[in-house]
Amino acid sequence: xxxxxxxxxxxxxxxxxxACGNELGGGTGLQERKLVSILFVDxxxxxxxADGADPEDVRDRNQLYxxxxxxxxxxxxxxxxxxxxxxxxAVFGAPLARVDxxxxxxxxxxxILEGIQELNAANQGLDxxxxxxxxxxxxxxxxxxxxxxxxxxxxxVNTAARLQNAAAPGGLLVGEETHRLTRHAFRFEPIPAVDAxxxxxxxxxxxxxxxxxxxxxxxxxxxPLAGRGRELDLLASVWDRAVEDGRPHMVTILGPAGIGKxxxxxxxxxxxxxxxxxxxxxxxxxxxxxxxxxAAGEMxxxxxxxxxxxxxxxxxxxxxxxxxxxxxxxxxxxxTRYLSLVLxxxxxxxxxxxxxxxFTMRMLVEHLAERQPVLLVFEDVHWADDALLxxxxxxxxxxxxxxxxxxxxxxxxxxxxxxTWGGGMVGHTTLPLEPLSGDDAKAVAAALLPEADPSTIxxxxxxxxxxxxxxEELGASVADEVSGDELPSTVWAAIAGRIDALPPDARAALxxxxxxxxxxxxxxxxxxxxxxxxxxxxxxxxSRGLILRRSQSQVEGDVEFAFKxxxxxxxxxxxxxxxxxxxxxxxxxxxxxETSTDxxxxxxxxxxxxREA
Length: 613
Fold this sequence. Notes:
globular, five-stranded parallel sheet, alpha/beta
């Protein structure tokens, strides 16, 4: 059984999830519509290989393949739904949506192809070949399915299976939407459209050649930076003060996906480098194997000129050479040992306590800052593990008399987890990034769509509501002549990820409120739902910037709220299956009729809900 809250697998018959404590239902109940990516992989020529083979040998071969594929799928955040003969079907984006689910699915597929080669090399007589495909689209998801019950159903599942049959042995194909969502991260080669069984039209497809970007990264935007003058001025003043006083300072830049954290940090970094400073970047990954200090390791690699594919002995030699130029001769050997651990290169001898490793990182930063002021940029610290977070805290708290500024970029949920980030630091500033103003958003949209008419610009600005990523994706949809009613998948996924990260009661309240409308009322929400703590749920939604409280209400005696962005309401409403929407519309209409002193005053609202029911 899959937990609908955290996505972990629970033993059959369990009442509670062992990972998060969520109470598990009986399955075949709650269903939702979600944007998912489906991965199919299958063994090529399995019938011929099994012909005449001992059944135990066939079983052992399949177990090796299934076990390896499952581990690689789960490492990338997917869920194995089922095995069909020698085929494996996995779902990315359910029960929890992430903004990079399509990319995760493609990386998982490539990883499985690599894993088969490793299995063949490690097992004498094994000569498996697999092929796969990834398709992205809307599916109906069963929350907490029972054993044997399908997690995802929809045309996208069938399309992925058919596309997999068209892949060459050792190849991975993707459909049109997956290609559009991941073309920044992989190199593709178009292939002739596939005549897939059961499909009326040919299916566009691309072959995946190689990965281009680090997992979860987005291409650098070339759109003019607008509306961040105040924030850049603040960063400049922090930098100037750190350089003049010789004391480190940290700035934590907070904002949801797409708000422009990395873009602003890149702009600040370029200005600092033009002024004679040195910028080092490191990024935490959302998945894949990594050393505990991966982001710090990226910075060390940059200092030493180490490439990812350098052999261990070459990497260590480069590291030692760089440290000889920075550390006193007597300290080089120990510094090389500990920083090798940061790089994931291992140690020649057992490591001492972690404090020695942290001290070495501190000394590296101080030695670098003696030569020129240093900016350390830690991207996506909401994905960082405790070891890296402790290291950042240690550096900011213990680096002395050094011209150093640390930028930590994170999503708001990083602090919502109850983490006391920056509490004990003397020099720490939290900088929340707000949506762009209407004028700034209009300037960005006009730059993206120089030939668009004013009404088109106004529509893009209105829908994006100040989010730079949404502006770019909506602008691209207009440029590609995509239907104006169709929300780009990147925008949908970013919002769905925020919704799925909510506490269960708050998430349920948001979905229910979306049926009431863009504006909704506390009493209506409580009277037509099954929410235990309505006020607590509303407070959680308000604190996360998903809804806002109106100063006046259209319904007498009730508190009115509104979705902060129409897109949040659209995605929440779109998550509910049609049957659930109809039931809720009817329940809301009945509640309004029964509780209103004069239902005629709410005629417009009643008409809407009865029509939708």
